[in-house]
Amino acid sequence: MSEITPAMAYESPNQPGISVREATPADNTALLALDRQCVVAAATPVTFDRTPDFFARSRPYAYWRVYVAENDSGLIGVGAMALKRVLVNARPVEAAYLYDLRVAPSYRRLGVAKAVGDAIRAHVRSFRPTVSYSLVMEGNVASLTFVQSRGSRPLRLCTLNLIPVESRIDPGPDRLKALDDSAVEAALRLARAAHPGHDLFPFVDEASVRDRVHRLEQSGFSGLYGWEDGEGLAGCFGLWDYSPIMRMRVLEATGEWSWVAGRDLHLIFLTPLGFRQAHHLVEVVKMAAARLRASPTPGAARVLAITHDRMDPAYVGLEQFRPVRMGFTLFGLELSERGGSSFGSRLVFVDPADL
Ligand SMILES: CC(C)(COP(=O)(O)OP(=O)(O)OC[C@H]1O[C@@H](n2cnc3c(N)ncnc32)[C@H](O)[C@@H]1OP(=O)(O)O)[C@@H](O)C(=O)NCCC(=O)NCCS
Fold first, then answer.
1. In a domain, 31, yes or no
2. Spacing, Cα 102 to ligand 1 middle (Å)
3. How far does the centroid of ligand 1 lie from the alpha carbon of residue 40, in Å?
């Protein structure tokens, strides 16, 4: 956020005097307040609490920008973009990820999100990315309609699996060890083998794994874990407590959600990077849950959160934990022919940082 983009005037026929500019650290308090007002009206309506730092959600990325819309009464809208180097069609390309779109309830349907989106689009264009993409929660009609009105196509259905840490999961064998820097090469090899041809795979080389680990160090990431068999590293995953960045509230905590009523939901992302065999995923969930149970967080409903492409067969083993599921649609757009022309026809790797 060092070079501030000057305000772009935006004139709505119903609501004149709206301008869009790049956010600065001084906007933090207003952005946290705006975020709290914005219920994400999805199939499971949720709100987020991102105190103390609205921008923490963006820090896992090497390059990101946040844009805000304001009028006489203050800040009324926000949206963000990050640039990521990812694999698309097995080739490393630049992707623009679009996220964090919010407009204050009393200023909706006036084109504020469109104005923020236009500012972001102009900025993105200068990088000539191959694809752009965004994730929208199932049932969020406003957002689903909005992204399609901007030309994005629905490409893949994705799932966020939530498995309560406190549920009765037998601990399984404790073969885990924390992996250090010397294991990155083996971990990446395993991760690539477990995600053959997956689009949006964000670890294009060893440096990108290290970069991500480094960026998450202050943000709840507890590290990479794995275990070995006779042939070397047999499985590895990352464990990332996302609660320092954001806590979630489920607004209608009934039925399968009743166990979170009145409590903040803390997501702990379990990123299954790689496994020699599919059944290892089940072992990993057991080992991770046991590890987390050893450090309880009173008052919070903690869940292991695992994201994946709904069609990815590697994740069927999760079924036995009967996770609560939230659906997402990945929307995308090919912006150049370089490798992106069949974007959406292959499975995708869902990066937890993108949720
Ligand atoms: C989604 C959201 C950002 C849209 O903001 P907005 O400023 O009201 O959107 P705009 O006025 O720019 O709308 C542009 C177009 O999007 C579509 N759209 C926006 N809101 C819509 C709604 N509630 N129902 C149907 N279409 C909608 C329409 O095509 C609209 O064009 P039109 O008004 O000419 O018909 C806003 O509803 C919001 O903040 N929701 C809560 C937070 C959220 O869900 N964010 C997205 C997380 S993925």
1. yes
2. 9
3. 11
